[in-house]
Amino acid sequence: IDLDTAKQELQEFIPHVKNISDSSIRKMAGRDLARFKMFKKQGIAVKFGRFTQKENNQIRKNVDEFLSITGIDSAEKLLFTWRYPDERESINRLKVEHQFCEKISEGIPRPWRLIYYRARKMFDPNNYKGRYTEEEKEQLKKYHAMHGNNWKKISELMSRSNLSVAMKFSEIKSAINYGPWAREEVQKLKLAVKEVMWRKLEMEDARSPSSVEQSNEDLWVDREKLCQQLPWTEIETKVGSRYWRQCKQKWTSILAKKMSKVQHLHKGTKSLQDKITLIKRLYEMKVEDVNEVNWEVLSDAIGDVPNAIVQGLFYRLKVSCVPFWQTKTFSEIIDFLFEYKLPEFEEKL
């Protein structure tokens, strides 16, 4: 199908399709569109975000079955074929003959590209090599000076995964402050978020330079956009003294204080009511994995707050109220909160 038709049909399944490049849309039209339509007929929605344990198990099953069919003797050879130049041609031929793209994504209602990246992360033996030594850190700095952000090249030189070397370099490239945030750091963070949000709005709305200049002093952004994924490595660079995870956590706490009603979330009767509502809704969802929880629904139920705030409330509940929570499954944690803590909170209220 032509590009415009592909965009129109994919829009139903991927709302942000207008932000995807034309070449990626063409690939998705070939690899994903028929799958998405099949899942729709089965009443299954296309998913994004963190993979559930069930989906991870399905990926393992798909990979194992493909290896069995083709005779390829390891997942690493299948997913990191370039590491085996002597066998690359024969492996690629087998992948084409046995429809690798279709097989690897079987039973998983997500874009093929995300499934492929997830499989590579799961089966990369270089992904789980423990802490970096001081020598490795110095090597990483040297290789980055030579190759820039070519993480594929650097990962090959260091025998670590792309993700591992990229994140470790982000962590060590400058002196990181782990203490309380100074006022100057907070201002840098707010300015950095404003800059990236403004650029994003310019791209989405295609504003003219004159309209941008007129409204830049008074930037208003929908709550959902403020809570969406932001380019945290870029924000980290702008802040300069904090690791990207610290920036993300701090921004979430800033949102919590600024959003309406959030300042009362953990005080008095409002705090008890929020805990009661959260436990009841989680119990009613009857899900087996935390990654299957619809946090959007829960945030609306508690009072139109960011998803991260509700997730934080749940985390504090399980840590403070559920004994040996680390050894329990998600459903066991919810059952305990519902059976033992909910009556206690309702009595207090």
Counted by DSSP, the helix tally is: 20
Number of strands: 0
Distance between the termini: 59 Å
Mind telling me the C-alpha Rg?
23 Å
Shape: globular
Average residue pLDDT: 82
Strand content: under 5%
Class per helix and strand makeup: mainly alpha
Biggest β-sheet strands, sense, barrel: none
How many domains? 4
Portion of residues in helices? 55-70%
The arrangement of helices and strands along the chain is HHHHHHHHHHHHHHHHHHHH
Spans with pLDDT under 50 lasting ≥5 residues?
Answer: 207-217, 260-266
GO molecular function: chromatin binding
Domain HTH myb-type: 124-161
GO biological process, one term: termination of RNA polymerase I transcription
Domain Myb-like: 124-172, 173-255
SSE layout:
Elements: H1 3-11, H2 22-31, H3 33-41, H4 53-70, H5 75-79, H6 88-97, H7 100-104, H8 112-123, H9 134-147, H10 151-158, H11 162-172, H12 183-205, H13 209-215, H14 223-227, H15 232-239, H16 244-258, H17 268-285, H18 295-302, H19 307-321, H20 330-348
Helix pairs in contact: 1-2, 4-8, 9-10, 9-11, 10-11, 12-15, 15-16, 17-20, 18-19
Please provide a brief summary of the model.
With 349 residues, the protein is mostly helical.
Name the features.
about 65% helix; single chain; 4 domains; mainly alpha; about 350 residues; Arc Repressor Mutant, subunit A
Task: Walk me through this protein's architecture.
The structure is a single chain. Helices cover 66% and strands 0% of the residues. The protein is built from 20 helices and no strands. Helix 4 packs across helix 8 and helix 18 (295-302) packs across helix 19 (307-321). Residues 207-217 and 260-266 have low confidence and may be disordered. One of its GO terms (molecular function) is chromatin binding. This is TTF1 factor. Residues 124-161 form the HTH myb-type domain.
